[in-house]
Design a protein that fits this description.
The protein has helices spanning about 5-20, 20-35, 40-50, 55-70, 75-85, 90-105, 105-120, 125-135, 140-155, 155-165, 175-185, 190-205, 210-220, 225-235, 240-250, 260-270. It is mainly α and about 270 residues long. It is elongated and about 75 Å long. It starts with a helix and ends with a helix. The model has no long low-confidence stretch (mean pLDDT about 95).
């Protein structure tokens, strides 16, 4: 198989993969590899398609085959790192990423390294990596989210709220708005927490924890009727939250006393 033929197969297989025709992409790669075993471009692409399908072991074999021919290919190193991380081999993933950074210091590779360091429990190094990304790109959403969560874990509530608010400046998932609500709630900013929880529920209407925390924030800010509505929503979404709702209702300064569990359940059920 000539180089041109291999490139043509890669092109056709890439088109099939991008169109969601994974089976066709795999068949094209395997047909090419049957004619030229170990061809690095085909091995790389086949590894990527198999990774997308969740077939980690064969994907790792093919990316290692590609790297044996092209050890200094940064994209292949990045894919090998992602595969190793998925397999729980974090040291191997970091080794691939360090090599990829030397070869081609791109943003995606630095982000992958920060994620992997955090997953490995190397918090100080992960924080340093995320801060470097944020320094280069102040509005990098994931860096702000990760650093915000770390700040919250460290008890730096104001720092956490600031970072998480920055992360919501562009379209953010419900989980980020929820985390912002928690940080604001811990700061006793109940109105700010309310707004964050409402946004989380707007994005994900079935977010039971957000409905529960919204009820607590409303209750803390002296809005018992609105709080009951939020608690009723949380209960409808997840009846197992009844105990948390009952505790919240009876323990807050603006709470209500329910002597009969059945009466409370009836009130929540409307």
């Amino acid at each position: 198989m000539s180089k041109d033929n291999a490139e043509d197969i890669v092109r056709r297989a890439t088109v099939a993969f991008n169109a969601g025709r994974h089976g066709e992409a795999i068949e094209l790669c395997r047909r090419g590899l049957a004619r030229q075993p170990g061809e690095p471009m085909l091995s790389h692409l086949l590894a990527a398609v198999l990774f997308a399908k969740g077939e980690i072991a064969p994907a790792r074999r093919h990316i290692e085959t590609s790297l044996a021919q092209r050890p200094d290919n940064a994209a292949a190193r990045l894919l090998a790192a992602r595969l190793a991380r998925t397999d729980g081999e974090l040291d191997a993933a970091l080794a691939h990423l360090d090599r990829a950074i030397v070869l081609k210091p791109q943003r995606d590779i630095f982000v992958e390294k920060a994620r992997t360091l955090e997953l490995a429990g190397r918090k100080a190094e992960a924080r340093e990596a995320w801060e470097a990304i944020r320094k280069a790109i102040p509005e990098h959403q994931e860096a702000n989210v990760r650093l915000g969560r770390m700040a919250w874990e460290d008890g730096d509530l104001a720092g956490a709220a600031s970072l998480l608010a920055r992360a919501t400046a562009s379209a953010a998932p419900a989980s980020v708005w929820f985390d912002l609500g928690v940080a604001r709630q811990d700061l006793r900013d109940h109105d700010g927490a309310e707004n964050a929880y409402r946004k989380a529920l707007e994005i994900r209407p079935d977010y039971a924890e957000a409905a529960l925390n919204l009820g607590i924030a409303l209750q803390e800010s002296g809005k018992p009727d609105a709080a009951m509505q939020a608690f009723a929503r949380a209960y409808a979404l997840r009846p197992q939250l009844f105990g948390s709702i009952a505790m919240a209702l009876t323990s807050a300064p603006h709470g209500r006393l329910w002597l009969d569990e059945r009466a409370l359940r009836q009130a929540l059920e409307g």
